[in-house]
Design goal:
Layout lengths: L1 H13 L11 E8 L4 E5 L4 H10 L5 E6 L6 E6 L6 E11 L10 E8 L4 E6 L2 H9 L6 E6 L5 E6 L6 E11 L8 H62 L2 H9 L1 H50 L1
Antiparallel strand pairs: 1-5, 2-4, 3-4, 3-5, 6-10, 7-9, 8-9, 8-10
Helix pairs in contact: 4-5, 4-6
Length: 308
């Protein structure tokens, strides 16, 4: 056994295995090739690119890959046929798995491939039935379709669409993402219209509110405040000012009688005047000023807030 292991190690050392990565929908033969029947050849290509081109070309039945001795690059050829094969050290021959898979709009077909696990549900139905089920579920990313020995068709909806593995006789359908990117310019335009309408609405609302309610409360508050203030002011300071410029008699008289009458008169007059002024003019100017200020402030705030 030790002698066998030593010989096997020497064989692996001098003749390393060719790397032939598995490709879903194809069977691969390592260190084998099919000479001739070339559809197209390229001197620099990857295995995945060759498989993609062969899959999309109905004439292609197989493809090979090998290391070009002159350039050292990986090269390959698409082929009309895959048989017969012959030994070819360092070559990989990939044969397309042919199955009777229907073409279903909205799905990418991978014949002879499957993703194992991640089943949402499995049931007896055709490929079109499986497509209908998968299309009706947002969590379905793919489905497969296959026929069992008794001739019954089954389909399994999948939460995940990759990775794929070779599976003879199975058709695998991956849902195509039809989501369109957001039209940024249209989105910003609609958002600016929304902010403008909202600012106009708030401006009108605040103007009406300030014109009605603020005028009432402000006029009442200021008239009461000024009445009290003027009464006190006229009762105290006015009598002192007049006593300086008038005689002692007048000062005494004014200090006693005039403040009472004058303060009452002026306070009543100013109270009425201010009430009328505040009720009519002040609310208009104040409401216009505040509504303009608030509308500008709200517009700027909404623009910054909605832009984030």
């Amino acid at each position: 056994m030790a002698n066998y292991s030593f010989r096997r190690a020497l064989c692996d050392l001098h003749f390393p295995h060719t790397a032939c990565p598995p490709i879903a929908g194809y069977t691969v033969a390592i260190d084998m090739d099919h000479p001739g029947d070339d559809l197209a050849c390229e001197g620099l290509i990857t295995t995945e690119t060759a498989a993609s081109r062969c899959t999309t070309d109905s004439r292609c039945k197989a493809f090979n890959t090998y290391v070009d001795s002159s350039s050292g690059n990986l090269a390959g050829c698409l082929k009309y046929a895959s048989a017969p094969t012959s030994p070819a050290s360092g070559a990989c021959i990939y044969t397309k798995v042919t199955t009777n898979c229907a073409i279903i709009p909205g799905y990418t077909l991978s014949p002879g491939a499957d993703h194992y696990g991640d089943d949402i549900n499995c049931q007896i139905t055709t490929a079109n039935g499986g497509a209908s089920i998968c299309s009706g579920r947002s969590d379905c990313k793919a489905f497969n379709s296959y026929t069992v020995q008794d001739g019954t068709q089954w389909s399994c909806a999948k939460r995940v669409a990759s990775p794929l593995a070779n599976a003879n006789g199975i058709c695998f359908y991956t849902k195509i993402n039809n989501c369109k990117p957001l039209n940024t310019h249209k989105h910003l335009y609609m958002r600016s219209i929304c902010m403008t309408c909202l600012s106009i609405y708030l401006s009108i609302y605040l103007s009406i509110y300030l014109s009605i309610y603020l005028s009432i409360y402000l006029s009442i508050y200021l008239s009461i405040y000024l009445s009290i203030y003027l009464s006190i002011y006229l009762s105290i300071y006015r009598s002192i000012d007049l006593s300086i410029y008038r005689s002692i008699y007048l000062s005494i008289y004014l200090s006693i009688y005039l403040p009472i009458d004058l303060s009452t008169y002026l306070s009543t007059y100013l109270s009425i005047y201010l009430s009328i002024y505040l009720s009519i003019y002040l609310p208009i100017y104040l409401s216009i000023y505040l509504s303009t200020y608030l509308s500008i402030y709200i517009s700027i705030y909404l623009h910054i807030y909605l832009s984030t």
